[in-house]
Design brief:
- The chain is built from 4 helices and 5 strands, in the order βααβββαβα.
- It has a 5-stranded mixed β-sheet, with helices on both faces.
- The longest helix has 15 residues, at about 95-110.
- It has a single domain (about 5-135), classed as Gcn5-related N-acetyltransferase (GNAT) (Aminopeptidase).
- Helix content is about 30%, strand content about 25%.
């Protein structure tokens, strides 16, 4: 793990990031839901600046990514760093890369005066849930998420 670097992705990384998103969709059993093109993802990141991404590099290879954006909480008038996706390739799990991502994301959140970090996890994903609890994250049992498909 000592060679792993967490840093922002660059446009030249998009092909590999997109490939890893395919792996991530399969891991989460959401292949049918993964419909974005590489160009659409790139636009959100590099043109619209709505989605931010970090990569984990090990010996020059991208072995994981984290995608995040900012939400706003009106009552305290603060930002929330929302972690949309985090993925580490199977062969690189258990080596502390997830911890490196979360530490860097926490640094970014503090640098941007965020109130907190927030994310969702699929209910069946017990290994991820255990990891999040291990790093001190708490399950929000107060709020229920609603969605309306468009």
């Amino acid at each position: 793990m000592s060679d792993v670097k967490i840093k922002p992705i660059e446009e030249k990384d998009m092909k590999e990031i997109y490939r890893l998103y395919g792996e991530f969709a399969a891991y989460e059993k959401l292949e049918d839901y993964f419909s974005a093109s590489m160009e659409e993802m790139g636009r959100l990141i590099f043109k619209d600046n709505l989605l931010h991404m970090l990569k984990a590099e090990n010996e020059g290879q991208i072995v994981g990514f984290a995608a995040y954006y900012y939400q706003v909480v009106s009552f305290p008038a603060k930002k929330v760093l929302y972690l949309e996706d985090i993925y580490v390739q199977k062969m690189h799990r258990g080596k502390g890369i997830g911890n490196l991502f979360l530490k860097r994301l926490e640094e970014i959140a503090r640098e941007n005066d965020c109130l907190k970090m927030s994310w969702k996890c699929l209910g069946w994903n017990q290994s991820s849930r255990a990891f999040y609890e291990h790093i001190g994250a708490k399950l929000d049992e107060e709020w229920v998420t609603y969605e309306k498909k468009l």
